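=== How it folds ===
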Amino acid sequence: MGDIRSILSQFHSKKKTKESDTQKAATGPLAEASLSNIPDVFFDDVLNKIKLTRSEITVLMFLYRQVWCRPNLYKTHGIGPLNSYAEMATFLHITNDELTHNLRSLENYGLLETVRAGQYFVRRYFTSALDIKYGQDYDEFF
């Protein structure tokens, strides 16, 4: 059995970081932790009634986050800002074909509606009956 000091010397402390690594982490797109409010109807109703794939959930959560958790002029209406398909696919780590397939699928489920290419109405599923059932006003998500 080797000397304990020689074994431990092979491992680097997590506390020691290079200055360049620290700068990269501080300037990256996710430099600060954030909190995103997503309506309860998504977790309690959508996920229970509709069997979505992982990538469909990812796309839908991305759009919900854009509408209610980022600066957006149309939050109260549930309309997301215009997206570039290529940038959105890159950000979500999926192909453009997979993205368009997922968007079409989410439209078929009635979870969103295309306003124009790259812009979506995500409150389509959130009817006034579901608003009353869950006791939520979606204006509180901004």
Summary: Strands lie at 113-116, 119-121.
